[in-house]
């Protein structure tokens, strides 16, 4: 690449600022400034590029920049916090598409690029970017419920995917002129089509509940695609930033898999929800102790410590604001209130924390699994709202289908209150022994109306 | 050393640095981390500007401009939504 040394220095500065910005995300107190630093780094890189690059026509560039900024800005302002996974998913898709298009444009400009670094990185950038693009749109459609969230599977699916990868490899060699079976440009277009098709095919068999893993992984891919585009045009700031994002996505993917107690291969190739050997007819048949809002208010209002465990059911019912009111009222009575958040409580890593932050819960009260698990033994009462598998003590039983899954040890608290619609099983499809323990009270009902009732009852406590 | 090898060194070291930084991000910030990292991957805008700037055919121009628009959605949307989320994290 022929960027002048002064421009390279600006790119270097930009790369440093990306690292500094991401580092500030290590604490909620500095995170917002960190994001602003990263945004400034991006502005720096854009200005440096525009100053340095030969620009034959400004019209298209300005149109693209203005259009993209308006769409992105509008989406960012309007999105509901519950829809964050979809938004991140679709932004990922656009990032991947941009990287792929950089590679595609380079090839179209020089179809005789041949074997070598340039050719190979163009193919890699097109493949990764293409898969990210179409895969992200399928993930978006599933999360937005534009299509069924159920896994779409058919016989020979994995064989077909493997064949497509082989075909892509073969077309790659034709594209680079190793084998002269087709015009390189024709082979390349088919290669692009296969990349897009692969993205669709690898995401459709994955169920809606596994989308957090998919979004994390596609996030990683969008970084790798940017790195590949960096190799194509010989630009270090792209390679560095892409690598940072690639690492971030990979770490979050691993954390999500760990939280769900599954391997990445297991998520990718399905085969879960296997409740084989579980007697489904027995689920919810055992007697439970029920409590109404008044009784629950009394259980929570006269103790020293309460831990609230929110699950995705809370967010679906949009009851997080009512929940925060309950928390505030209890604190006003001198009760210590904390929130225990399981890694997979929401639809993406850390999603539940954002939903509670939106409801104005102070972030120092949001504790993750490792921080809170030892405290349950000293907790007077636990209030579980719309969570199931993540509090199922069966995870400690080596014979259970969820054996080894990290769970919140809520059963160790002196009193357990479960707010839930019914005794129906969670995603794992198994019964939850927690509901039948002697010190567990079931508070049945819709999360929103139950929570409103609870707000009223706590307020009326003496 | 070839351009490719330099690039590979940079890529591997940046990945390791990213790993060190990002493992220390607390779970409570994982969603803003993901959307912020996502915005950073919009760095493809630099590549898009380079290829669109030197595009000399209609096809190249169209592809380049499309790349710019999509990268800008990623950049502007990503940073703004991350800022919006982080603004909600308050301690009181």
Rg for CA atoms of chain B: 17 Å
Overall body shape of chain A:
elongated
Percent helix of chain A, as a range, is: 55-70%
N- to C-terminal distance of chain B: 55 Å
Task: Explain this structure.
The complex is a heterodimer of chains A (462) and B (92). With 462 residues, chain A is α/β, with parallel strands linked by helices. Chain A has helices at residues 5-23, 31-52, 58-78, 84-109, 117-143, 157-175, 184-203, 211-233, 236-259, 264-269, 293-301, 312-316, 320-332, 351-358, 369-372, 447-460, and strands at 305-310, 336-341, 366-368, 381-385, 415-420, 440-444. Chain A folds into 3 domains: 1-78; 84-269, no CATH class; 281-460, 3-Layer(aba) Sandwich (Rossmann fold), CATH 3.40.50. In chain A, strand 2 (336-341), helix 14 and strand 3 form a beta-alpha-beta unit. In chain A, helix 1 (5-23) runs antiparallel to helix 2. The termini of chain A are far apart. Mean pLDDT of chain A is 90; it is low at 271-277. Chain B has a domain at 28-88. The longest helix of chain B is centred in the C-terminal third of the chain and has 31 residues, at 58-88. The termini of chain B are far apart.
């Amino acid at each position: 690449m022929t960027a002048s040394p002064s421009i390279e220095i600006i790119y270097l500065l930009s790369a440093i600022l990306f690292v500094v910005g991401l580092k500030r995300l290590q604490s909620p107190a500095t995170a917002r400034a960190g994001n602003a630093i990263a945004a400034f780094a991006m502005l720096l890189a854009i200005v440096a590029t525009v100053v340095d690059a030969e620009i034959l026509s400004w019209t298209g560039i300005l149109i693209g920049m203005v259009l993209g900024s308006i769409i992105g800005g509008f989406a960012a302002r309007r999105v509901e916090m519950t829809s964050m996974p979809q938004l991140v998913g679709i932004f990922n898709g656009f990032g991947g598409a941009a990287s792929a298009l950089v590679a595609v444009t380079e090839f179209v400009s020089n179809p005789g690029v041949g074997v070598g670094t340039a050719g190979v990185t163009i193919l890699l950038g097109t493949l990764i970017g293409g898969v990210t693009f179409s895969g992200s749109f399928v993930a978006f459609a599933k999360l937005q419920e534009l299509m069924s969230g159920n896994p779409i599977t058919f016989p020979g699916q994995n064989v077909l995917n493997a064949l497509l990868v082989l075909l892509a490899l073969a077309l790659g060699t034709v594209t680079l002129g190793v084998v002269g079976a087709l015009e390189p440009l024709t082979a390349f277009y088919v290669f692009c089509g296969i990349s897009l098709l692969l993205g669709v095919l690898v995401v459709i068999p994955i169920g809606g509940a596994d989308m957090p893993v998919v979004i994390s992984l596609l996030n990683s891919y969008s970084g790798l695609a940017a790195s590949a585009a960096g190799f194509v045009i010989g630009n270090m700031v792209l390679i560095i930033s892409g690598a940072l994002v690639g690492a971030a996505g990979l770490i979050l993917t691993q954390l999500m898999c760990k939280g769900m107690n599954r391997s990445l291969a297991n998520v990718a190739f399905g085969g879960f929800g296997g409740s084989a050997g579980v007697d489904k007819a027995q689920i919810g048949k055992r007697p439970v102790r029920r409590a109404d809002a008044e009784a629950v208010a009394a259980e929570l209002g006269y103790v020293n410590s309460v831990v609230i465990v929110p699950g995705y059911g809370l967010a679906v019912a949009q009851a997080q604001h009512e929940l925060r009111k309950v928390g505030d009222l209890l604190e006003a009575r001198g009760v210590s209130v904390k929130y225990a958040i399981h890694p997979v409580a929401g639809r993406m890593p850390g999603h539940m924390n954002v939903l509670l932050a939106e409801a104005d819960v102070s972030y120092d009260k949001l504790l993750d699994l490792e921080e809170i698990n030892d405290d349950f033994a000293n907790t007077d009462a636990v209030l579980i709202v719309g969570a199931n598998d993540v509090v199922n003590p069966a995870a400690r039983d080596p014979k259970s289908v969820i054996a080894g899954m990290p769970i919140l040890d809520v059963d160790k608290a002196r009193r357990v209150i479960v707010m839930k619609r019914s005794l129906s099983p969670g995603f794992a499809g198994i019964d939850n022994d927690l509901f039948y323990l002697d010190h567990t009270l079931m508070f049945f009902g819709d999360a929103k109306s139950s929570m409103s009732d609870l707000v009223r009852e706590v307020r009326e406590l003496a | 050393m070839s351009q490719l090898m330099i690039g590979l060194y940079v890529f591997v070291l940046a990945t390791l640095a990213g790993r060190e930084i990002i493992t220390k991000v607390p779970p409570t910030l994982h969603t803003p981390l993901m959307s912020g990292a996502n915005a950073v991957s919009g760095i493809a805008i630099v590549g898009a500007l380079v290829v669109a700037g030197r595009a000399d055919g209609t096809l190249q121009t169209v592809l380049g401009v499309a790349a710019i628009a999509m990268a800008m959605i990623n950049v502007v949307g990503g940073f703004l939504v991350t800022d919006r989320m982080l603004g909600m994290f308050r301690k009181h």
